[in-house]
From TrEMBL:
<dbReference type="GO" id="GO:0002376">
    <property type="term" value="P:immune system process"/>
</dbReference>
<dbReference type="GO" id="GO:0006508">
    <property type="term" value="P:proteolysis"/>
</dbReference>
<protein>
    <recommendedName>
        <fullName>Cathepsin W</fullName>
    </recommendedName>
</protein>
<keyword id="KW-0732">Signal</keyword>
<comment type="function">
    <text>May have a specific function in the mechanism or regulation of T-cell cytolytic activity.</text>
</comment>
<dbReference type="InterPro" id="IPR000668">
    <property type="entry name" value="Peptidase_C1A_C"/>
</dbReference>
<dbReference type="GO" id="GO:0070013">
    <property type="term" value="C:intracellular organelle lumen"/>
</dbReference>
<keyword id="KW-0865">Zymogen</keyword>
<keyword id="KW-0788">Thiol protease</keyword>
<keyword id="KW-1015">Disulfide bond</keyword>
<dbReference type="InterPro" id="IPR025660">
    <property type="entry name" value="Pept_his_AS"/>
</dbReference>
<dbReference type="InterPro" id="IPR038765">
    <property type="entry name" value="Papain-like_cys_pep_sf"/>
</dbReference>
<keyword id="KW-0645">Protease</keyword>
<feature type="domain" description="Peptidase C1A papain C-terminal">
    <location>
        <begin position="128"/>
        <end position="362"/>
    </location>
</feature>
<comment type="similarity">
    <text>Belongs to the peptidase C1 family.</text>
</comment>
<dbReference type="InterPro" id="IPR013128">
    <property type="entry name" value="Peptidase_C1A"/>
</dbReference>
<feature type="signal peptide">
    <location>
        <begin position="1"/>
        <end position="19"/>
    </location>
</feature>
Length: 376
């Protein structure tokens, strides 16, 4: 058993017995001295995610935040209507405000740009298949990226959209430059945030996009240091469109055309481990969207999915064993988060605002201009 798997298993075992006591202490009951188990769990968390703190006061502060996040995870577990499991994640030592500043982007003030809101006529009339997962087609979905401390989910989602559509249309796998989208962005704010349409406008303004190999991701952005002209272009887009805010239309377009970008409320993702999130508008407001990701598929959970009775901890509840429709989404927080970098949201209830801003590029290679000459 690898060290990573062993640590994750220990964390799960120790956390199971902690959350109820922590929740009680945070509600005003006298906690007394902090339990040894909590400190052990926090130590394992630090080892698992390579965390260290500059001085004892900061360590104590992060331990307190960690305890509060465990209690919050328990609450989410009790409220969720799907099969999602919440608990220790790479973000368990961050406050909600810190998490939002580092990994989301500012919420849209007003409306998205007035682009044509339509679904391609070529897919009207086609039925929606029961399942769709573009990850199963080799070379379509690029590897999981990690935005680290750069607030660039918008650029990574747009890059993933272009890569997938390019592979589907031209049978050519590639990874495009996220760094170019950051350095050459005129509308967004680089690592301080932006929107997927900012990325698409950048590609149009630069007449294409370089490869990640030639123009690699560095996790920062340098205003007025755009190096787009120094690198060969490997992908181009014709324009971009916003789909109708309807889950059935989104599913049909996804199945017939390819992955699209969506922007959701990421509030529940800080504590998310795995499973299908089914939230209510109260627990995950669909209007307050602040995180862009790539929608790569959909399906239904098998009736046997969910926590089995013998695996239910003292702080979780068994989910009903019935089929739950879901979306599959590719995140940009590394493969150690969620379901190997992916997560699932309930499909059919606009969970966390998935229908608010469904955008996708439309691709086309540049047309070569023919030389015109006077006949002799």
């Amino acid at each position: 058993m690898s060290l990573t798997v062993h640590l994750s298993h220990l964390l799960a075992l120790l956390v199971a017995g902690l959350a109820q006591g922590i929740e009680g202490s945070l509600r005003g009951q006298d906690p007394g001295p902090q339990p040894l188990e909590l400190k052990e769990v926090f130590t394992l968390f630090q080892i698992r995610y390579n965390r260290s703190y500059s001085h004892p006061a900061e360590h104590a502060r992060r331990l307190d935040i960690f305890a509060r996040n465990l209690a919050k995870a328990q609450q989410l577990q009790e409220e969720d209507l799907g099969t999602a499991e919440f608990g220790v994640t790479p973000f368990s030592d961050l406050t909600e405000e810190e998490f939002g500043q580092l990994y989301g982007h500012q919420r849209v003030a007003g409306e998205a740009p007035s682009v044509s809101q339509k679904v391609g006529s070529e897919e009207w009339g086609q039925s929606v298949p029961p399942t769709c997962d573009w990850r199963k087609e080799a070379g379509i979905i690029s590897s999981i990226r990690n935005q680290q401390n750069c607030n660039c989910c918008w650029a990574m989602a747009a890059a993933g959209n272009i890569e997938a559509l390019w592979a589907i249309k031209y049978h050519q796998s590639l990874e495009v430059s996220v760094q170019e989208l950051l350095d050459c962005d005129r509308c967004g704010n680089g690592c301080k945030g932006g929107f997927v349409w900012d990325a698409f406008l950048t590609v149009l303004n630069n007449s294409g996009l370089a490869s990640d190999k030639d123009y690699p991701f560095k996790g920062n952005s340098k205003p007025h240091r755009c190096l787009a002209k120094k690198h060969k272009k490997v992908a181009w887009i014709q324009d971009f469109i916003m789909l109708q805010p309807c889950e059935q239309s989104i599913a049909r377009y996804l199945a017939t055309q390819g992955p699209i970008t969506v922007t959701i409320n990421m509030k529940l993702l800080q504590q998310y481990q795995k499973g299908v999130i089914k939230a209510t508008p109260t627990t995950c407001d669909p209007q307050l969207v602040d995180h862009s990701v790539l929608l790569v598929g959909f399906g239904k959970s098998k009736s046997a999915e969910g926590r089995q009775a013998e695996a239910v901890s003292s702080w979780s509840h068994p989910h009903p064993r019935y089929s739950i429709p879901y979306w599959i989404l590719k995140n940009s927080w590394g493969a150690n988060w969620g379901e190997e970098g992916y997560f699932r949201l309930h499909r059919g209830s606009n969970t966390c605002g998935i229908t608010k801003y469904p955008f996708t590029a439309r691709l086309d290679k540049p047309v070569k201009k023919h030389q015109v000459s006077c006949p002799p």
